Amino acid sequence: MDNRERIIEGAAELFRTYGIKAVTMDQLAGQLTMSKRTIYELFSDKDELLVGVLGWMAERQKFMVKKVLNESENAIVAIFKFLQLNMDHFQQMSPAFQNDIKKFHTEVLMKKAHKCEMPDYSSYIEFFERGMKEKLFRKDINPDLVNRCMFYLGRTSMDNAYYPYEVFSRREVIRNVVINYLRGISTPAGIEVINKQELKF
């Protein structure tokens, strides 16, 4: 692993734990036991570092989608596995990370989203295309539209502004919002799989 990769992975871990604003370049250098000068030789400022972190997160997301799909007996089982992975991921992430991006780094976020180089909906369409081939999802759905909708349902289900943590558990939100939507696009065979998976969820 070269210095660039070490810095990005180290920054990703600190950002997830403490938020972006709270993390200084000095803190990152100390965590990685390298000089701050080395970091600035590769990243001019925190925004450029955040761009690197978001790109790294996008690549990890694509890898995980492929891995989960390859290791799952069907598309719906894969979706449930991915929902659990995302829920675990968000539970370990400081709310400050998302808040800081929205508040202080909106331009960076918009640039990355425009280039589709940050974690986004485009990776997930394979779930729905495979599910249609397996006759678990209805043949009349538009997989692109369904995929976008599911992505934003999943994303908002983790957002405290929409569903306050002190009122709703994430599991309750996913069951009522995401899984019920999944039922609506499923065939009877797909609904059977959903019902079995939900018992384990």
Molecular shape: elongated
Task: Indicate how many domains the architecture comprises.
Answer: 1
Reported for the largest beta sheet, the result is: none
Mean pLDDT, to the nearest integer, reads: 87
Q: So, CATH architecture? A: Orthogonal Bundle
Q: Tell me what portion of residues adopts beta-strand conformation.
A: under 5%
CATH superfamily: Tetracycline Repressor, domain 2
Top-tier CATH class: Mainly Alpha
Number of DSSP helices?
A: 11
Q: Helical content, roughly?
A: over 70%
Plain-language structure description:
The chain has 201 residues and is mainly alpha-helical. The protein has a single domain, classed as Tetracycline Repressor, domain 2. It is built from eleven helices and no strands. It has helices at residues 3-18, 25-32, 36-42, 46-70, 75-92, 95-104, 106-114, 125-133, 143-157, 170-184, 188-200. The longest helix has 25 residues, at 46-70.
Write the layout of secondary structure elements.
Elements: H1 3-18, H2 25-32, H3 36-42, H4 46-70, H5 75-92, H6 95-104, H7 106-114, H8 125-133, H9 143-157, H10 170-184, H11 188-200
Helix pairs in contact: 1-2, 1-4, 4-5, 5-8, 6-7, 8-9, 9-10, 10-11
Keywords:
201 residues; mainly alpha; elongated; Tetracycline Repressor, domain 2
Give a brief outline of the structure.
With 201 residues, this protein is mainly alpha-helical. It contains 11 helices and no strands.
